[in-house]
Specification:
This protein has about 180 residues and is an alpha/beta fold. It folds into 2 domains: about 80 residues, Rossmann fold; about 80 residues, GMP Synthetase, Chain A, domain 3 (2-Layer Sandwich), CATH 3.30.300. Helix 2 links the parallel strand 1 and strand 2.
């Protein structure tokens, strides 16, 4: 009997890889053995991303090891994900992208105080890790962090790798 979909073991392994900051590609094998209609591929992707909601950044490829279908494309994806996992972005370029994101969606406020993002720098790679210096960590809501991560991911074409964010407080002279 062919097991279809994400198993509990798949979830555990994917979680370990995500937590370790590894590049991830979701590979669905034996795709040649699945009966398909016009919606099979999209429905399968939705199901996978629903069960692995923390891996929406990971590309999915449908292959057949038996027939060799799309196996060459898998190796191209591996190279791309490896490149993204090791990506380094200059501080100037990174801050331009963050300032663009801030212009589109203003940072949150709390009790009349507005979050100020002072600057951003990349601390490391594998996975790409960014340090965001702000005036007040308590105002920096996780949803705004997710927004900034998604903006960074889109602007730099980062796929298949988690992006880590470290938030640090740094006070402006006017905040003292």
């Amino acid at each position: 009997m062919l097991k279809i979909g994400v198993t509990e073991q798949d979830t555990k392994i994917a979680g370990e890889a995500h937590e370790a900051g590894k590049g991830i590609i979701i590979v669905v094998n034996k795709w040649d053995e699945i009966e398909k209609d016009n919606n099979t591929l999209e429905n399968f992707k939705k199901d996978v991303y629903q069960k692995l909601a923390y891996l929406t950044y990971a590309p999915i490829i449908f292959i057949s090891a038996k027939t060799g279908q799309r196996v060459n494309k898998l190796f191209e994806m591996i190279n791309e994900v490896s490149r993204c996992n090791s990506m380094r972005v200059s501080t100037g370029t990174l801050n331009d992208v963050i300032n663009e994101a801030i212009a589109i969606t203003q940072p949150p406020t709390d009790k009349g105080r507005r979050l100020k993002i002072l600057y951003v720098t990349q601390a490391s790679t594998k996975p790409p890790t960014f340090v965001i210096f702000v005036n007040n960590k308590d105002i920096f809501h996780f949803s705004y962090e997710r927004y900034l991560v998604n903006h960074i991911r889109k602007e730099f074409g980062i796929t298949g790798t988690p992006i880590r964010v470290i938030v640090r407080e740094k006070f402006d002279e006017e905040d003292k």
